[in-house]
Amino acid sequence: QVQLVESGGGLVQAGGSLSLSCAASLRPFSSYDMGWFRQAPGKEREFVASIRWTGTSKSYADSVKGRFTISRDNAKNTVYLQMNSLKPEDTAVYYCAARPGYDSTWNYWGQGIQVTVSS
User: Fold this and answer.
1) How far apart are CA 47 and CA 119, in angstroms?
2) Contacts for 12-16 with beta carbons within 8 Å, 24 or more apart?
């Protein structure tokens, strides 16, 4: 069974930084695109960032461009989200997601991890 396990969330003041990790049981991990999504209270889940299986192409939501960085370590089966200059509006449950490199549907999801940014 595929498992995606997020870690690194928590409470941080506005302007601070947090780094999220997602460890995946996918095999081979290197053949999967990986992404981060988030859902704030009362809002729909939204795309945050993704990285192709090749690691050479990354995409970001406009709201996080220049502040967040997605990366992956295929040797550790892990994808990361470095979040800098955090704002209160970044408060949400963050989800890790995966899809095969040939697919457009995010098939696998983590359980989510809370990130809270205080003003």
Assistant:
1) 23
2) 12/86, 12/115, 12/116, 12/117, 12/118, 13/117, 13/118, 14/86, 14/87, 14/88, 14/117, 14/118, 14/119, 15/85, 15/86, 16/86, 16/117
* φ/ψ of residue 89, rounded to 5: -70, -5
Banded pLDDT at 2 (limits 50, 70, 90)? confident
Place of tokens 């490199």: 101
Closest by CA to 8, choosing from 24, 77, 17, is 17
Please determine, for residue 37, whether its predicted confidence score (pLDDT) is greater than 90. yes
Please give the angle made by the CA atoms of 67, 36 and 17, to the nearest 5 degrees.
35
> What one-character DSSP code corresponds to residue 56?
S
Alpha carbons 114 and 99: distance in angstroms, whole number: 22
